Amino acid sequence: MFALLSYIDYCLLGALLLLLLYQCYFYFRYMTIASRKHNKHTSLLEDSACPKVSVIVCARNEQQNLQDYLHTLLTQDYPCYEVIVVNDGSEDDTQIVLERYALQCKQLYTTFVPRDARVISSKKLALTIGVKAANYDYLLLTDADCRPHSRHWIREMMSGFANEQTEVVLGYGAYFEKKTLLNSLICYDTLFIGLQYMGMANVGYPYMGVGRNLAYKRDTFFKNSGFRGMLGEVAGDDDLFVNKVANKSNTAVVCSPESITWSSPKTTWKEWIHQKTRHLSVSHHYKQTSKMRLGIEPMTRGLFYALLIATALFGGGLAIGIAYLLWWLRLVMQLCVINTAAHRLGGRLFGIEIVAYDIILPLVTLWLLCTKRFHKRPIYW
Question: Can you say how many angstroms the Cα of residue 306 is from the centroid of all Cα atoms in its chain?
């Protein structure tokens, strides 16, 4: 068999094997956190161990979402908490909805951002107002369009603070499933990014979180000067703050079905591109070590596919067959890891379309970064 392989075949197959080994290392080290049966923080807290919590929600023109989801925050199975909703200059009937709920629920507190506030990112201002209004030391953040998976959401997220050193707890925010190509792509992208940031944090390399499901101590916010240093960015209220304050010793991850929040994804390609643009607009502020770790995986993935094409063009018949086998091994490994996590977290499962997403998503990211489609103007997540 070895005589049937040329020097070029050996070089191509050797490089493919090395890239495959790194991809396997990446997936099994970082992407299997949701698949592990024994997570660090899976047991529900007893009432006596539950700290007092302030749940903070920022809302701009969220009349319908508040009607649909606010009650799921106000009926949590948790002994002592408050819900603070910051009306961020809404122009619909958001305030009327909040006033109606406030009459019925004593744990609901509302405040507001003036409509004429001139800031680049109104959400950072809204969050700061919410943090200052909080009466309790533990803060749990989500969005107005989010629905907790269960009545134990707060209890599950607070279990991440079991270690006294913990100051930041990262959770997972999923999207509702719809039968469209765009929805499938968004769900895969969200799951991949979620497993990546939670997995890296779990082994001591936290670099981001999502504002749909994020907790930290009130004191942590103030001793790190809140969003100072990032006020000129259109985004970053979640990932830049985590990148700034989180480290190996003060960060925990809660990744269990009952700790998830669900929200509606974008429904048009234009909206999704705008959302990706906003998220990428702050990535250059990440720590150099974070950027390096995040860059290696898509680089090795792209090289793997490039070498597959090169082998198909310049390799011999046997080399092409071996390369095809290596591709299948990677695909099976990827499907097993991704779908095991998706199943445990209650999300959609993926098939052969994962190959297209594997190629499309890095190219979209590269295109947005190269064209620098970022602009500073008032933005409302």
Answer: 28
